[in-house]
Amino acid sequence: MTPPYQIRADYDDRTIVVYQAYSLAIADAALRAGRFVVPFSFHRMTWIKPSFTWLMHRSNWARKPGQERVLAVRITREGWEEALSRAVLTTADPAAVARAAVHVQWDPERSPRGAALNHYSIQVGIGRHLIRTLTDDWTVGLTDLTPQVRKAAALIRTGNAAKVPRLLPPERVYPLPRALENRLSPGR
């Protein structure tokens, strides 16, 4: 049985991939520049998610208005863990949440068809005071996954969901340092 609270992600020795869904204007500008630029908002919290299928559920496979493009954002593991070290669970004391530079919430992980699973996926909200650090220092690459998202969504719509896993990014348990694991797991 899968532990209820663990981070699953696509990562290597130096980086981790998180996913975001954007409007055409934001994604196009970012991909042209090779980094986040206006019209991306540097003045409000942005949520990053290491679970591809959770983002697919949230964006309805890139069909929700304003979420038509899916980007894989490769960030440094050092930056990822720095963000997590500054995080407060959204279920914590409201005053602590309001002061936090980073918010963490756990939502039920999703299958490719959108069914809730018996374990959770982490969502990390980067506050406006850290967004420039995320975009300028931690981000090392952007990849447009929209074509593969559209293929997977078409397979699901046409009754071929069994073929979807080959289109999904490889995700495995992220080796979170024990102190961060204890800090971020609800009920600990």
- The percent range for strand residues is 25-35%
Q: Into which percent range does the helicity of residues fall? A: 25-40%
Q: How many angstroms does the end-to-end distance come to?
A: 20 Å
Number of strands: 9
In N-to-C order, the SSE pattern is EEHEHEHEHEEHEHEH
**Low-confidence spans:** none
- The outline comes out as globular
Please give the order of strands in the largest beta sheet. 8-4-2-1-9
Class per helix and strand makeup: alpha+beta
Number of helices: 7
In short:
About 30% of the residues lie in helices and about 30% in strands. With about 190 residues, the chain is an alpha+beta fold.
Describe this structure in words.
Helix content is 32%, strand content 29%. With 188 residues, the protein is of the alpha+beta class. Strands 8-4-2-1-9 form a five-stranded antiparallel sheet. It has a four-stranded mixed sheet with strand order 3-7-6-5. A hairpin with a 5-residue loop joins strand 6 (102-110) and strand 7. Helix 3 (77-85) runs antiparallel to helix 5 (131-138). It is globular. The model has no long low-confidence stretch (mean pLDDT 96).
